[in-house]
Specification:
single chain, alpha/beta, eight-stranded mixed β-sheet, six-stranded mixed β-sheet, 39% helix, globular
């Protein structure tokens, strides 16, 4: 029996998302979520997608799950109940999403003690994400010490940015001493979507230049030339770039000094303000684009202003990345907002006919789970909607590595 299954784990500070995939046909076997880990109201939702368990549909359990160790053991139990446990000989690897890989990890990597120590050393660059990623790896290694554990890094796809793009224009000695540079994030999504766009156009990846707009609660843009990232909007952290649900995106760095000197804010208070209380939430009190659109449609001034700021930043990045690439073959929208909010796509592309971008209003209004073109026939540049699949991308990279 050939081992062809990969379990993908995305460990957050109080949650674990997971999917089990069979790479023989790229099918999903099961998926689920454990949330509110460490609380009395912990919740595990498990959905078997094939086999006997699928007939019963989604299963849910509510009750205290003390830590990530208990969470992953509960996940293993649910998978075992469907005949797909972690002891299965069909399991080839566990693929772990790791947010920050620094400058060392630029491709998927089999995890050993040295690699785990390196990932742990990167915690200062991603203090909200890497600790949970490390915990998930440690627990998974304990559960199946004999199984290859593969780290797939959010930052890796962007490691191809030229040095003059990745560098901030600050004192080089300070930058080098403290690893200050632009890393970028959402890399698995940008990698998957840029390749899927080329397939949608029926062209080889190496021949396609695409601007990818990953628009969720967190949002980022990338310029991808022939499958290689040459620029992205997020930087040292996921705070830089587009207006997001709760993050400010680009601001004058002196805002930080002003808040400290004039308002008396501490560093932690400024961090919280820019990361958790800004963006759409800070401007209008809602970070859910659906609610922002509803309010704006009813004439709410704060929501209308927040939406206008969100779209304006998108337009700036589309224009900038068109200049960076020189030739653009497609602009692709993805993630929750990008895939579902036709108003955002319409507003972002409106007025960009000079860049070759024209929407087909009917195609844009259609909701679908399939990759699709929404540009008008006369458009010189394709506009696409491609649902992202970060789990499949992680599973693909992990499986290719362990079977090479």
């Amino acid at each position: 029996m050939t081992a062809s299954r990969v379990l993908v784990l995305n460990s957050g500070s109080s949650s674990v998302k997971y999917q089990l995939l069979d790479m023989a046909d790229r099918s999903r076997l099961a998926s689920g979520l454990v949330e509110r880990i460490g609380e009395e109201t912990s919740r595990l939702v498990h959905e078997p997608l094939v086999g006997p368990g699928a007939a019963g549909g989604r299963r849910e359990q509510v009750g205290p799950i003390a830590d990530h160790g208990a969470a992953l053991k509960a996940v293993a139990g649910e998978l075992a109940a469907d005949g797909m446990g972690l002891d299965s000989p069909e399991l080839a690897a566990v693929g772990h999403r790791v947010v920050h890989g620094g400058t060392r990890f630029t491709r998927p990597t089999v995890i050993d003690d040295e690699v785990l120590a390196e990932i742990r050393s990167l915690i200062p660059l991603a203090p909200l994400h890497n600790p949970a990623n490390v915990t998930g790896i440690e627990v998974a290694r304990e559960l199946r010490a004999d199984l290859p554990q593969v780290a797939v890094f959010d930052t890796a796809f962007h490691s191809t940015m030229p040095e003059h793009v990745a560098r901030y224009a600050i004192d080089a000695r300070v930058a080098d001493a403290y690893a200050i540079r632009r890393y970028g994030f959402h890399g698995t999504s940008h990698a998957y979507v840029s390749r899927a766009t080329a397939r949608l156009l029926g062209r080889p990846v190496k021949d396609v230049n695409v601007i990818v707009l990953h628009l969720g609660n967190g949002a980022s843009a990338s310029a991808v030339r022939g499958g290689v990232c040459v620029e992205t909007s997020m930087g040292l952290t996921p705070l830089e770039g587009l207006v997001m649900g709760t993050r400010s995106g680009d601001v004058d760095p002196a805002v930080v000094f002003h808040l400290a000197r004039v308002a008396g804010f501490s560093v932690d208070e400024i961090d919280s303000l820019l990361n958790k209380k800004s963006g759409l939430l800070g401007m209008c009190g809602d970070n859910d684009m659906r609610e922002v659109l509803r309010r704006a449609g009813e004439g709410d001034e704060a929501a209308s202003l927040a939406f206008a700021a969100y779209v304006h930043r998108l337009k700036k990045y589309i224009g900038a990345y068109a200049a960076v690439l020189g030739r653009v073959d497609a602009v692709t929208f993805t993630a929750g907002v990008g895939e579902n909010a036709h108003q955002v796509r319409e507003a972002a592309i409106d007025g960009l006919a000079a860049l070759g971008l024209v929407l087909d209003p009917r195609a844009n209004a259609v909701r679908s789970a399939e990759p699709r073109l929404i540009s008008a026939e006369e458009a010189r540049v394709a506009v696409a909607v491609v649902p992202t699949d970060e789990e499949l991308e992680i599973a693909t990279q992990a499986y290719e590595l362990v079977t090479r």
